[in-house]
User: Fold these one by one.
Assistant:
Number 1:
Amino acid sequence: MEKLRLAAEAFATQGEPLQLSPCGQGHIHDTYRLRCTGGSYALQRVNTAVFPQPALVMENIVRITEQQKRALGDRAERRVLETVPLKAGGLLLWQDGACYRMFRFLENAYAPERSTPAVAEETGLAFGRFLRQMEGLDPRQLHEILPGFHDTPLRLRTFQKAVEEDLAGRAEEARPLIEYILDRREAMGCIVEGLRSGRLPLRVTHNDTKPNNVMLDEKTNQALCVIDLDTVMPGSALYDYGDMLRYGASTAEEDEPDEARVDLDMELASAFTRGYLRGADAVLTPLERRLLPLGALTITLEQAMRFLTDHLNGDVYYKTAYPGHNLVRARAQIALHRAMETKRGQLEALVGLPL
Ligand code: GN1
Ligand code: MG
């Protein structure tokens, strides 16, 4: 904590620091809330193993938030993530080999940890609006922070390599999951192929569209601001839509150990979809809109591969709370994917409906 306190002091906060406490549930960075007499802040120790070039991440964040401010005009207040500079200037502090940054903590707002139909609709709305706000920013102006982040065929190759190498000696036990994934390898490349051929537009996408990456107003419960802009990159809107459903419309947590409890909640799926379509408005092309369910299926399988890859590699990427955590996560993703396959027709009906 002492190191954190020192780090916090380097940033240009308002007023005297009062309290520093851990917050958030991210799998990647460590986040702390700093309360000062003049307001609250989020101090983050950046995971430089995952983001080896945090300066490029911050350049992206500045471009993205500037674009949001342009799009929102005089409605930008409380609707755009605010970075806090160092007293000495700049946005990143390097201290004892660690890298820190700070954001303003939005007052009287919260990041929902649980989906309800109302939360889902606001989440969809926020990410749909985000897509629309990014219309004025050429995706090629952003650094591709994590190359191939949602290149599902590349994720498949990485997964196959992990299976072959079996570094941690865990492949045998995971065989049924491995087979489930490999049986579905054919359809995995559709979206990436669509981008490559130009049939699907390359857009500025968020790439981590969980409900807890949207801040809602405490009083009105309406969406204010999209956060966690680290993985905003050129990509396909289908993955953003799909990831909302994958994370937010499941009946269970991402690491539910009992597969029987994992299902796709159609009421939530419907609310996310309604919100997203309303927020994105006329931005989506008819083909994108029609293929939204494919986004949900593809990213859920991709996430299953990512968790299983990490399990096979000996848990080197995601934070884990117990041995086998990544295996549990992969199993739950596959159960969700199975439910999505079963309900594909219902998902297709959702995106076909007029607004
Ligand atoms: C990671 O920790 P968080 O919520 O920012 C991951 C996402 C995964 C997610 C799974 C940079 O996100 O891609 O979907 O975990 N982020 C990175 O919950 O890998
Ligand atoms: Mg994230």
Number 2:
Amino acid sequence: MKFLVINGVNLNLTGKREKSVYGTATLDEINAQIQAFCERNGDTVEFYQSNIEGELVNKLHEAYLQRTCDGIVLNAGAFTHYSYALRDAIAAMDIPVAETHMSNVHAREEFRKNSVLSEVCKGVVFGFGAGSYISAIVGLKSVVKK
Ligand code: DQA
């Protein structure tokens, strides 16, 4: 299977910002863990990060129109809480998307408890740090038709 892992706004600072919330591993280090997990399972994975909402939408469109993957792990960062553009892009596509967060968004500020993406995603994983991404891949593997 082919997976696409998309990280949105501010996730490039992972390992440097708010270490007590997001840990000390950098995004490259987390991606290496995901890559190793996928390789062990005979799967392939592509990584993409952008701080720009429209670029994330374009990446979702590319995956949908060019059939570049079987499942998408999406940590949209703060866009999760208010981006109707990302929501509509996910709703438009038939590739399953797993909304993913490293932190427990329900144990933090009120605004993080609301996601405008969850309703149109296949599932949601949060609270396990870098493990959230791996858990999302496992979840996608169980729903993707081979
Ligand atoms: C996050 C949670 C969001 O609320 C926040 O804006 C982020 C990261 C997470 O991975 O826990 O940037 O998506």
